[in-house]
């Protein structure tokens, strides 16, 4: 048994590594267990987000957006850029370098803050003991006053489309495609499917997205989903709703995808198929039966609002617990838990967690949708402002989309903000801050926004809540 720690964190994704750094900053003796190793056996930090999720996908989205804009948006601005095309191998190499820099940076932060890295697979035993099995099979035992479980998630695999090297890929394999597939199939029109589809449609792939549900992006406000569907199909994504994959057949370098839709049995031949039907918590063998931690039937760890499990001193955060599978939600849960361990008062406002889909235009939202509020019987006021009426958006050549703000009819408090727009991911932070401070639409109406900025659309949407927008009739 090694020396006792104040905190042991299992998993070094955005939930775990942030929790470990915060714990060390607060003077707690902290260790973080991580099982991921590279080809040379060295630990890989950063989890899904940095290695095969948020960061690499955004690197590819940025590159392909720039190329697409050069091809389709430069000429109208008087910029002559002939023969602009993608070099997929260089694009992927740049993405890999960004991942390497960031994951290496976390190792540096661990060192600087005094976090002990325990390489290996962690398992929680009874009495807050953690068993670590390293890559060579050596087992060590560590004790702690508090344990934070942050093991993250893995892609869901479906029997009709088993992963097949180079042809049928999950999200990790999809990020390593280094030649433009002429025909790309995607199963699942969720966040990951739409982001991957956008990347390759911009590069010229014929992209077909099969979505089993009859509705598109049902989690978003209906104005957002309608606008997004219109814009994405215009960009060339063939999104088939109500299309359920029933089987796949690999023939040489092609995949035949069989699916059923309202018209019966269909098939589609593609060069690569990405399976993006969701992710599941990675909790198998993470805790022993006598650890006191309980899981639900889908494998998520039961926690309360402050991420406490059923076992005293054991917490769970991020993708392994209820709530949206988002990096920033995982990190903020990590900080909340460590603050509680250190004796501070802490909570997380789950009503103000922003969601973003990084297509172009981007989709971003926080709070409730118009449909949710109407179903709950809340009387609301809605203001909407299109980017087509924004001078700065025109100058930026990014006039698609809108800002939609929903406020309570009686109290004027902002209840939800929904944005489709070029920099929706940045604008949504304004709405998050406003809602976190319980702002009313009037608070934003009385706030001075610089001119000309794309942010003025947020101001105008707040004004539109009371039919006072200046730049729309
Ligand atoms: P993870 O990041 O999954 O990290 C868990 C870590 O624990 C891993 O390193 C794993 O190796 C380790 N581990 C697991 N079990 C053990 C064990 N027993 N012992 C030791 N170590 C263990 N979210 C966003 O907010 N924004 C985005 O733009 C975004 N884009 C995404 C794009 C893609 C393609 C994907 C797949 C996901 C994306 N996500 C995004 C989701 C985001 O990556 C996750 O929500 C986030 O990584 C969850 O953090 P986590 O710390 O809970 O888990």
Automatic annotation (TrEMBL):
Keyword check for Glycosyltransferase: no
Residue pairs linked by disulfide bridges in the UniProt entry: 49-54
Domain Pyridine nucleotide-disulphide oxidoreductase dimerisation: 353-462
Record-level Gene Ontology MF annotations: dihydrolipoyl dehydrogenase (NADH) activity; flavin adenine dinucleotide binding
UniProt-annotated catalytic positions: 451 (proton acceptor)
GO biological process assignments: 2-oxoglutarate metabolic process
Alphabetically ordered keywords of this record: Cytoplasm, Disulfide bond, FAD, Flavoprotein, NAD, Nucleotide-binding, Oxidoreductase, Redox-active center
Residues the record lists as binding NAD(+): 188-195, 211, 278
Cofactor (UniProt): FAD
Catalytic activity annotation: N(6)-[(R)-dihydrolipoyl]-L-lysyl-[protein] + NAD(+) = N(6)-[(R)-lipoyl]-L-lysyl-[protein] + NADH + H(+)
Cellular localization per UniProt: Cytoplasm
GO CC field: cytoplasm
EC number: 1.8.1.4
Protein origin, superkingdom: Bacteria
Pfam families per record: Pyr_redox_2 (PF07992), Pyr_redox_dim (PF02852)
Note: The active site is a redox-active disulfide bond.
PANTHER family: DIHYDROLIPOYL DEHYDROGENASE, DISULFIDE OXIDOREDUCTASE
Family the UniProt entry places it in: Belongs to the class-I pyridine nucleotide-disulfide oxidoreductase family.
Protein name: Dihydrolipoyl dehydrogenase
Organism of derivation: Nitrincola tibetensis
This protein's encoding gene: lpdA
